[in-house]
Design a protein that fits this description.
Elements lengths: L25 E4 L13 E4 L5 H16 L2 E6 L10 E4 L2 E7 L6 E6 L3 E7 L6 H11 L8 H6 L14
């Protein structure tokens, strides 16, 4: 059998149940190598607080494990307590920029050219709404901006979907 006759392995997807375990301090990412970036978001992050020095180092550390060195993080100054110009994270300097990206988005730069946009879930958001928004944000075909995902209605409970009226 030729290599071309071997079917590709199925994509490694997280089970839907994983979204129920998501809590504050979690980042959900869709990291796929593709030439087409149809979605507007590459993932979602649910910080515990609005303290940059407390929250950003953990995010950058986990991203660096999968993406390589992170050089910049862009945040909206109106959404965070204070934004220093740089942080040393894992013995690397990461520059922090204040952009009017909206308090619902963080921009991550790897190297000089690769940019990733993550939806930022407000720390005090109701857990079911936060989990639903995060699950929607990581879909590859998502074209809904973060602002809309964060206010979208929750799906009806399973008993109301297709059940007796």
């Amino acid at each position: 059998m030729a290599d071309s006759d071997i079917p590709p392995p199925p994509p490694l997807l997280l089970p839907d149940e994983i979204h129920q375990a998501v809590g504050p301090g979690t980042a959900l990412l869709r990291l796929e190598t593709t030439h087409s970036r149809q979605g507007v978001l590459d993932g979602a992050w649910w910080p515990r607080t609005r303290d940059v020095e407390q929250e950003v180092p953990a995010l950058v550390s986990v991203l660096a494990e999968h993406l390589g060195p992170i050089t910049r993080v862009g945040l909206d100054a109106t959404a965070w307590d204070t934004i220093p110009t740089r942080l040393v994270i894992d013995d690397r300097v990461v520059h922090l920029d204040s952009f009017p990206v909206g308090d619902d988005t963080v921009l991550i730069t790897r190297g000089d050219k690769d940019h990733f946009a993550l939806m930022v879930v407000p720390p005090d958001m109701e857990p079911d709404a936060a989990r639903t928004a995060m699950a929607r944000a990581v879909h590859a075909d998502n074209i809904t901006p973060a602002t809309e995902l964060l206010v979208a209605p929750l799906p009806p409970p399973a008993t109301e979907q297709g059940g007796e009226p």
